[in-house]
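protein under study:
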Amino acid sequence: MTGRSVIVTGAASPVGAASARRFAEAGDRLVLADADEAAGEKVAEALAEAGASVAFVHADTSRRLDVHNIIAEALDANDRIDVLAHTVMERFSAPFLETDEDDFDRVIGRNIRGAFLINQAAAKQFVKQADNDAGAGGVIVNVGSVEAVTAAADHVAFATSQGGLHQLTKAVALALSPHNVRVNAVGVGAVKGDMDEGVQPKRMRDVTPLKRIGDPEEVASVIYFLASDEASYVTGQSIYVDGGRLAQLDPPNENGKTE
């Protein structure tokens, strides 16, 4: 068999689907997973029609049994796992004083517990493969938001989860470095498909130095780079694909001027 064995979670999202296409274009063999069964199957079917080796698993990565099923499908289809691109991101917005425990637990569960479970499951397989092949290694790329660094008053649960995701990435990278496994994160700014057309996209364009919304394919290219040998000396890092937003000291106001 040719190509790497790649798992893409959150494959029905704009970034997840674009990442799946990018890996497929390189000839990699894919197992896609998403909690949205219909949308995930649609992505898998499109790739299969284009000639890709692809399987789909209906799964919520915050559930241990679902994670087990993802790993089992990858091993059944491809005998091994080389790359995990974890793109699941549960977004949530509500005033802090109106955010209840169930909302908070759901966001943390999807974004932190889910990342922990799928990272750990993939890592165990990477280590097992390394025991049989000293140079085997493996790669994990976790995808989150620029809100690992910034925050909004009505994004308390989401921002908390994003900070945790990027710290989890660093800790997992250190834990797995003796096994030649690299772990990095990608922080995403405003991306097409993640928001409806209208006021929000216009506001995001206004506060982004490049004055546009990013394409999912631009994020997918960075994910693919981090998963490639081109990034063989990169681990424990977070790379932000945000059009320059985090570089600004004072973002422009509604009139396009800085304070």
